[in-house]
Amino acid sequence: MxxxxxxxxxxxxxxFWYLAFFASLIFIFQTIMTFLGTDASADxxxxxxxxxxxxxxxFELFSFRNLxxxxxxxxxxxxxxxxxxxxxVLVVVAFAVGIIFVGIFFFIIKQILKLQEDNTFNLNNAxxxxxxxxxxxxxxxxxxxxxxxxxxxxFHELEAFTEDAEKINSGETxxxxxxxxxxxxxxxx
Length: 189
What we know:
Helices cover about 40% and strands about 20% of the residues. With about 190 residues, it is an alpha+beta fold.
């Protein structure tokens, strides 16, 4: 039944069906493997030397995943519109839809990457923030105390000095005015 269905079709229509079918199978396999947390990309060694220092993996233009995305758009557009327009125009339209599928993939990945958050602690992000004194801070940089502060949702206990004329007691709120040699300088609020 199925071989007869395909054998009666013109060659171009068969090509669209085969591309759409096989690209769909591979796409489904890639999707399942992605949700399972495995890498479905093929480890193929190509004899190609290029300079891709600033390219991130999801944005590689010539990848197996993008080829499948292109073939999905190309194949299914050809299947859906075969016989409704001139074959040459159909191939051009199918090619354009394939490019659009790759563009949609890039857009989706870009939106997903925006959800990533960099929570690495950088002491310079503490300047201007308020903190609570944990251990008394002696006056006139005569000794150090400790403060607790929250930066990007995580709490840190850091050594602190003050240039104020009086010591700052535990429990008081301070503002971080500058950082020198990985040490905070604070002032009482």
